[in-house]
Amino acid sequence: MENIYANISAETVKVLHDPNIETQDVTSSGMAGRQQFDNRVASDFEEEQTKLLTETDQLMGEIVNLQNKLVFMEHHFKMGWHHFGSSFYLFSTVEKTWEQSKQDCVGSGADLVIIEGREEQNFINGFNGMFWIGLSDRETEGSWKWVDGTPLTIEYWKSGEPNSYGGEEDCAERSLIYSNTNQSWNDVACGQLKLGICEKVAYP
Ligand SMILES: [Ca+2]
Ligand SMILES: [Ca+2]
Predict the structure, then answer these.
(1) Helix (H) / strand (E) containing 133
(2) How far is the CA of 160 from the centre of ligand 2 (A)?
(3) What is residue 93's DSSP assignment?
(4) Measured in angstroms, how far is the CA atom of residue 173 from the centroid of ligand 2?
(5) What is the C-alpha to C-alpha distance for residues 17 and 158, in angstroms, rounded to an integer?
(6) What residues does the C-type lectin domain cover (predicted)?
(7) What does the DSSP 8-state code read for residue 130?
Protein backbone atom coordinates (compact mmCIF):
# COMPACT_ATOMS: atom_id res chain seq x y z
CA MET A 1 0.00 0.00 0.00
CA GLU A 2 2.78 2.40 0.86
CA ASN A 3 4.15 2.05 -2.63
CA ILE A 4 0.80 3.00 -4.16
CA TYR A 5 0.58 6.17 -2.07
CA ALA A 6 4.18 6.88 -2.85
CA ASN A 7 3.18 7.08 -6.51
CA ILE A 8 0.54 9.75 -5.92
CA SER A 9 2.18 13.05 -6.76
CA ALA A 10 2.28 15.92 -4.39
CA GLU A 11 0.11 17.88 -6.85
CA THR A 12 -2.64 15.27 -6.72
CA VAL A 13 -2.67 15.34 -2.96
CA LYS A 14 -2.90 19.11 -3.07
CA VAL A 15 -5.89 19.03 -5.42
CA LEU A 16 -7.68 16.46 -3.33
CA HIS A 17 -7.30 18.61 -0.22
CA ASP A 18 -7.89 22.03 -1.83
CA PRO A 19 -11.07 23.47 -0.25
CA ASN A 20 -11.57 25.73 -3.34
CA ILE A 21 -12.28 22.77 -5.62
CA GLU A 22 -15.91 21.66 -5.34
CA THR A 23 -15.79 17.90 -4.91
CA GLN A 24 -19.42 17.49 -5.99
CA ASP A 25 -18.74 19.06 -9.42
CA VAL A 26 -15.71 16.90 -10.00
CA THR A 27 -17.71 13.77 -9.19
CA SER A 28 -20.62 14.80 -11.50
CA SER A 29 -18.26 15.56 -14.33
CA GLY A 30 -16.62 12.14 -13.91
CA MET A 31 -19.98 10.36 -13.97
CA ALA A 32 -21.12 12.28 -17.04
CA GLY A 33 -17.90 11.31 -18.80
CA ARG A 34 -18.40 7.71 -17.85
CA GLN A 35 -22.00 7.84 -19.12
CA GLN A 36 -20.85 9.31 -22.43
CA PHE A 37 -18.25 6.57 -22.73
CA ASP A 38 -20.87 3.88 -21.99
CA ASN A 39 -23.26 5.39 -24.56
CA ARG A 40 -20.55 5.43 -27.20
CA VAL A 41 -19.64 1.79 -26.50
CA ALA A 42 -23.34 0.80 -26.69
CA SER A 43 -23.75 2.74 -29.95
CA ASP A 44 -20.61 1.13 -31.48
CA PHE A 45 -21.89 -2.27 -30.39
CA GLU A 46 -25.30 -1.68 -31.98
CA GLU A 47 -23.67 -0.47 -35.18
CA GLU A 48 -21.42 -3.56 -35.32
CA GLN A 49 -24.39 -5.81 -34.54
CA THR A 50 -26.48 -4.28 -37.38
CA LYS A 51 -23.53 -4.67 -39.77
CA LEU A 52 -23.07 -8.33 -38.82
CA LEU A 53 -26.80 -9.02 -39.18
CA THR A 54 -26.79 -7.44 -42.66
CA GLU A 55 -23.74 -9.51 -43.65
CA THR A 56 -25.43 -12.64 -42.29
CA ASP A 57 -28.54 -11.89 -44.39
CA GLN A 58 -26.38 -11.39 -47.50
CA LEU A 59 -24.52 -14.68 -46.88
CA MET A 60 -27.80 -16.55 -46.33
CA GLY A 61 -29.06 -15.07 -49.63
CA GLU A 62 -25.90 -16.25 -51.42
CA ILE A 63 -26.29 -19.74 -49.93
CA VAL A 64 -29.90 -19.94 -51.17
CA ASN A 65 -28.77 -18.74 -54.64
CA LEU A 66 -26.00 -21.35 -54.76
CA GLN A 67 -28.41 -24.08 -53.63
CA ASN A 68 -30.86 -23.05 -56.37
CA LYS A 69 -28.03 -23.08 -58.95
CA LEU A 70 -26.99 -26.55 -57.79
CA VAL A 71 -30.54 -27.89 -58.09
CA PHE A 72 -30.86 -26.24 -61.55
CA MET A 73 -27.56 -27.76 -62.74
CA GLU A 74 -28.30 -31.22 -61.32
CA HIS A 75 -31.68 -31.18 -63.05
CA HIS A 76 -30.10 -30.31 -66.42
CA PHE A 77 -27.30 -32.86 -66.12
CA LYS A 78 -29.89 -35.57 -65.37
CA MET A 79 -31.79 -34.49 -68.50
CA GLY A 80 -28.62 -34.90 -70.62
CA TRP A 81 -27.57 -31.24 -70.93
CA HIS A 82 -23.87 -30.37 -71.13
CA HIS A 83 -22.37 -27.34 -69.44
CA PHE A 84 -19.86 -25.13 -71.24
CA GLY A 85 -18.97 -21.50 -70.50
CA SER A 86 -22.14 -19.82 -69.34
CA SER A 87 -24.52 -22.07 -71.28
CA PHE A 88 -26.18 -25.48 -71.21
CA TYR A 89 -26.30 -27.50 -74.44
CA LEU A 90 -28.52 -30.40 -75.44
CA PHE A 91 -27.69 -32.56 -78.45
CA SER A 92 -30.93 -34.09 -79.65
CA THR A 93 -31.26 -37.74 -80.53
CA VAL A 94 -34.18 -37.47 -82.97
CA GLU A 95 -33.78 -36.10 -86.49
CA LYS A 96 -36.20 -33.31 -87.35
CA THR A 97 -36.53 -30.31 -89.68
CA TRP A 98 -34.75 -27.07 -88.71
CA GLU A 99 -38.03 -25.47 -87.57
CA GLN A 100 -39.14 -28.54 -85.59
CA SER A 101 -35.73 -28.75 -83.92
CA LYS A 102 -35.94 -25.06 -83.08
CA GLN A 103 -39.41 -25.52 -81.55
CA ASP A 104 -38.16 -28.45 -79.46
CA CYS A 105 -35.40 -26.21 -78.10
CA VAL A 106 -37.84 -23.38 -77.38
CA GLY A 107 -40.09 -25.89 -75.61
CA SER A 108 -37.30 -26.65 -73.17
CA GLY A 109 -36.52 -23.00 -72.45
CA ALA A 110 -33.68 -22.82 -75.01
CA ASP A 111 -33.18 -22.16 -78.72
CA LEU A 112 -30.96 -23.60 -81.43
CA VAL A 113 -27.32 -22.91 -80.63
CA ILE A 114 -25.72 -19.55 -81.40
CA ILE A 115 -21.99 -20.04 -81.96
CA GLU A 116 -20.21 -16.90 -80.84
CA GLY A 117 -16.55 -17.74 -81.17
CA ARG A 118 -13.74 -20.22 -81.54
CA GLU A 119 -14.10 -21.77 -78.07
CA GLU A 120 -17.79 -22.51 -78.53
CA GLN A 121 -17.11 -23.77 -82.07
CA ASN A 122 -14.48 -26.16 -80.70
CA PHE A 123 -16.86 -27.33 -77.97
CA ILE A 124 -19.59 -28.03 -80.55
CA ASN A 125 -17.06 -29.82 -82.76
CA GLY A 126 -16.39 -32.22 -79.89
CA PHE A 127 -19.68 -33.96 -80.75
CA ASN A 128 -20.02 -36.10 -83.85
CA GLY A 129 -22.90 -35.88 -86.28
CA MET A 130 -24.74 -33.41 -88.47
CA PHE A 131 -26.62 -30.98 -86.27
CA TRP A 132 -28.83 -27.99 -86.95
CA ILE A 133 -27.42 -24.76 -85.56
CA GLY A 134 -29.45 -21.59 -84.97
CA LEU A 135 -28.44 -19.89 -88.21
CA SER A 136 -30.53 -19.23 -91.32
CA ASP A 137 -31.06 -16.86 -94.23
CA ARG A 138 -34.76 -17.70 -94.52
CA GLU A 139 -35.82 -14.04 -94.27
CA THR A 140 -33.44 -12.59 -96.84
CA GLU A 141 -31.37 -14.77 -99.15
CA GLY A 142 -27.67 -14.35 -98.40
CA SER A 143 -28.29 -12.45 -95.13
CA TRP A 144 -27.44 -15.00 -92.46
CA LYS A 145 -28.87 -14.38 -89.01
CA TRP A 146 -28.84 -16.20 -85.70
CA VAL A 147 -32.11 -17.19 -84.03
CA ASP A 148 -31.91 -14.16 -81.72
CA GLY A 149 -31.85 -11.87 -84.76
CA THR A 150 -28.15 -10.96 -84.61
CA PRO A 151 -26.34 -10.96 -87.96
CA LEU A 152 -23.53 -13.42 -88.59
CA THR A 153 -20.09 -11.93 -87.94
CA ILE A 154 -17.79 -14.79 -86.94
CA GLU A 155 -18.24 -17.68 -89.35
CA TYR A 156 -16.95 -21.22 -89.73
CA TRP A 157 -18.31 -22.31 -93.12
CA LYS A 158 -16.83 -25.24 -94.95
CA SER A 159 -14.83 -24.41 -97.99
CA GLY A 160 -17.24 -23.47 -100.80
CA GLU A 161 -20.19 -22.95 -98.40
CA PRO A 162 -22.72 -21.48 -98.12
CA ASN A 163 -23.52 -22.32 -101.72
CA SER A 164 -27.35 -22.26 -101.60
CA TYR A 165 -27.28 -25.37 -103.73
CA GLY A 166 -30.37 -25.50 -105.95
CA GLY A 167 -31.42 -22.15 -104.47
CA GLU A 168 -33.09 -23.84 -101.52
CA GLU A 169 -30.51 -24.01 -98.78
CA ASP A 170 -31.56 -21.51 -96.11
CA CYS A 171 -30.63 -23.30 -92.86
CA ALA A 172 -27.20 -24.07 -91.43
CA GLU A 173 -25.89 -27.32 -90.07
CA ARG A 174 -22.74 -28.20 -88.19
CA SER A 175 -21.64 -30.72 -90.77
CA LEU A 176 -19.20 -33.58 -90.50
CA ILE A 177 -15.67 -32.37 -89.82
CA TYR A 178 -12.80 -33.44 -91.99
CA SER A 179 -9.51 -31.67 -91.40
CA ASN A 180 -10.20 -28.07 -90.43
CA THR A 181 -12.39 -27.60 -87.33
CA ASN A 182 -12.80 -23.95 -88.32
CA GLN A 183 -14.65 -25.07 -91.43
CA SER A 184 -17.57 -27.22 -90.35
CA TRP A 185 -20.76 -25.37 -91.34
CA ASN A 186 -22.88 -26.01 -94.41
CA ASP A 187 -26.16 -24.58 -95.67
CA VAL A 188 -28.84 -27.15 -96.47
CA ALA A 189 -32.58 -27.22 -97.16
CA CYS A 190 -34.49 -26.42 -93.95
CA GLY A 191 -36.85 -29.37 -94.52
CA GLN A 192 -34.08 -31.95 -94.22
CA LEU A 193 -34.12 -34.13 -91.13
CA LYS A 194 -31.16 -33.65 -88.77
CA LEU A 195 -30.32 -33.66 -85.11
CA GLY A 196 -30.32 -30.29 -83.34
CA ILE A 197 -28.20 -28.52 -80.75
CA CYS A 198 -30.11 -26.47 -78.17
CA GLU A 199 -28.47 -23.79 -76.05
CA LYS A 200 -29.75 -21.93 -73.02
CA VAL A 201 -28.24 -19.65 -70.40
CA ALA A 202 -26.85 -21.76 -67.56
CA TYR A 203 -27.51 -19.26 -64.75
CA PRO A 204 -30.66 -17.28 -65.49
CA1 LIG B 1 -23.69 -19.53 -77.71
CA1 LIG C 1 -24.64 -25.96 -98.95
Answers:
(1) strand 131-136
(2) 8
(3) S
(4) 9
(5) 105
(6) 84-199
(7) -
Whole-prediction pTM: 0.73
**Element at 84 (helix H, strand E):** strand 82-84
Domain ranges of the chain: 1-78, 82-201
* Ligand positioned closest to the Cα atom of 146: 1
**Mapped to the 3 state alphabet, what secondary structure does 137-200 carry?**
CCCCCCCCEECCCCECCCCCECCCCCCCHHHCCCEEEECCCCCCCCCCEEEECCCCCEEEEEEE
Indicate the CATH number for domain 82-201.
Answer: 3.10.100.10
* Exposed e or buried b per residue across 75-87, where buried means at least 16 C-beta atoms within 10 angstroms of its C-beta: ebeeeebbeeeeb
Ligand 2 centre to CA of 20 (Å) is 109
Ligand closest to 185 (CA) is 2
